[in-house]
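User: Predict the complex.
Assistant: Input components as received:
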Amino acid sequence: MIRLTGVELRRLTARRLTVIGVLAVLVITAFLLFALWRESQPLSAEEQRAAQTQFEQAHKNWVEHGKEDQARCEEDWRTQPEPKPAMEEMCNFREPTVDDFGKPRTVFAEVMPDMLLGSSYLLVFAAFLIGASFVGAEFSTGAIGNWLTFEPRRLRVYGSKVLAAAIGLAPVAAVVLAIVLLGAYLIVDQLGDTANTTGKVWGDLTATGGRAVLLTALGASIGGVVGSLLRHTAAAIGVVMAYLVLIEGVFAGFLNKAQPWLVKTNFDAFVRHDTKYYVNECSSSSDGGYLCNTIEKTLSFEHGAWYLGILAAVLIVVGGAVFYRRDVNS
Amino acid sequence: MPELAISTRGLRKTYRTRLGRKVVAVQGLDLDVPIGGVHGFLGPNGSGKTTSIRMLLGLIRADAGSMTVFGRPVPAQLPDVVGRVGAIVESPKFFPAFSGRKNLELLAEAIGAPRKRVGEVLEQTSLGERGKDRYKAYSLGMKQRLAIAATLLKEPDLLIFDEPTNGLDPAGIREIRETMRGLGDQGRTVLVSSHILAEVEQVADTVSIIGHGRLLASGTVAEVIGGSTAGTVKVAVDNHEAATRILTAAGMTVRADGNYLLVDGAEHPADVTRRLAQQELYVSELVPVRADLESVFLELTAGEGL
């Protein structure tokens, strides 16, 4: 098994699609960092002047009418039928500050979780694609039949492919995420704010990156499993894209209470260590109306971990069972 | 019973078409391939040759029956004997974007063969200079040679070639034929499936003929040919009319064939000369007509609707 995995790893790294896929990920990563660099640029002197003018006008308005607006809002709130939002939420007329106007400074600890999550989407998608092609191409070219005449123990063959995909793509993810983290730090250190980047922040970001690496490895393996089940790279990608669009997109749009059971929500919960999602809760009001409120909910890291773990295990076992039993006719 | 390289008993495989119709590809095949030499596995297209080979190699599952390779039941103990078996099933299939050498290196590594063996088998199959070229740039003949090189990585005792000359030019066919014969002469067992009978007849020591997934005949080439002909002899004699009358009266069947007579039904060629000489007709030439594998094959498969 170790020898077979080594052979598969050599094949994976020698494939042109693997090299192209990794290069594409590096190019997109460079674009991400470029976007951050652009986003972190401070305002020009002219833009700063305009922001200052806007602030002064808003502050003046608040001084003159703030208390009056607050009182009117509280009055309106009292007359509203239940259910209704909290008064502090509805009638928040705090004093404006200069930071509310113009472009806020980029804070490393604030932008990185989203940046790492975005990078993990990219990495898992690329790993899935490479994994699906890695195994699917063997079926579409018929090379799997030849391979099995050399090693007929199918579960070993299957295991070595799934494992090689994971082992091969995990270091790529680690390197890419390290580039994102360090590149972003250097950019924000020059143009934004890294002052509050404590050891805990680094620890959290590293853990997020570690989980993204784990999911990339899993994505590559699942790509291999789906490639093996469908026996064609294009079919594997088509099925997954159809799932993402129809189930995670259209279906979830209609039934937002299903979000805890969607792959994306659980993915986010796992990578970010808890995630928020929103559901509409609607009820009839006392005056006969019908009111919908958007409620924020949290999906826990544990839920995400169990969900993704079980899903991956089921897919890998089903893929193995099919590979073990299926006739190889090509 | 001699030791066998391959033996199958009651082997059966049924497929379902896309419309759900059942198609029996192999029905109760009993096949014995002796150790050593070249064994021709003959049958028309769709007779179940490739399906049988795939079952032997564990690529597809048999519905019923048993198989052994070198006495080991397969597929259960296939991993124990697979190191002694090299096979090319239908057309060679390798990773198209890799070079021939890279493809072989991966296979060699998978079976723990030393890397220098790759160079040896490439030289052995005259691919040494083209080893670094991509597989997809190879001609059909080169692909076939690479497939043979792959089977030789294991230094196998049994080689299975499924339709190895399909699509090859005459030079390629000859090359493959000589390779198979050479391997057989080295004491290895070569099972070659084909529907091109003249080609197999030139290299095979023993043959099995199948039709509709069943064994129709088996044995040495001479036995199979001899078993199906009733001893036709070609006779040159001056008086065709008289000779025809005499031999027909003796229960033989006579047909004209240019300047010769073709005589069937003689127990022994000497009967023909004796009967004619008794009537003072003297034979100037007498040649036993040897049937070829093709005529035997056509005779055997005539009722198979193939």
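The longest strand of chain B covers residues 4-16.
Let me know if you want any component modeled separately.
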